[in-house]
Amino acid sequence: MKHIAWIIVLLFPFTLFAQKAERKNLREGNKLYNDEKYTEAEISYRRSLEVNPTSEQGIFNLGNALYKQEKYNEAGEQYKMSAQMQKDPIQAAAAWHNLGNISSQAKDYAKSIEAYKQALRLNPNDDETRYNLVLAQKLLQEQQNQQNQDQQDDQQQENKEDQNDQNQNQQQQNQDQNQDEQNQQQQQDQQMSRENAEQILEALQQDEKATQERVTKEQMQQVKQKITDKDW
């Protein structure tokens, strides 16, 4: 028993020292926070949590210092811990309220609405939370309307692009068809030109042959007449 009592005697001063160090760092953090020195306040709050990692006040205040530095993800983690650990419903409601603010900051209004509702369950008389809830609901409706409009615009643009593609494809097909018809007509014209040339050449040859035969015939008649008319 003497041995156990001796240990208790040693631990008790250490506990008092830890409590003093925690309170000292919290006070310093609060002063720095009120002076808007949020980075320095964060350091003091973290020091207090090194002494007492389950300090409800230290966790909540660290979340506030992080929030003021726009470190929203880190602040959210502290507020979640605070909301789960707080025994005082008013303090827990404040943590949920701040979680709602972080979600609204990220435009995640559905999530912020749930956080504000949870805060109001713990503290129904908080008018600021009620106002933020109504605002988040309004912003969520506007966001959904905008998303629907964007989807309609995207669909219309997609339909327009598809129609343009179809028109271009049809135009290209028409051009290809016209070109094929022109090529076919040109080939036919060339074939007809060759045939016409052959016909003309053949006609000329026939005319020349007929002319040659006529000339030959006339020459033969002249010779025959000369022979007939000779005076013997």
Automatic annotation (TrEMBL):
TPR repeat ranges per the UniProt record: 93-126
Keyword rRNA processing included in the entry's annotation: no
Biased composition (Basic and acidic residues): 206-217
UniProt-annotated stretches for the region Disordered: 142-232
UniProt biased composition (Low complexity): 165-191
One matching Pfam family: TPR_16
Keyword Repeat among UniProt keywords: yes
InterPro entries attached to this UniProt entry: TPR-like_helical_dom_sf, TPR_rpt, TTC27/Emw1
PANTHER family (alphabetical): TETRATRICOPEPTIDE REPEAT PROTEIN 27
Stated name of the protein: Tetratricopeptide repeat protein
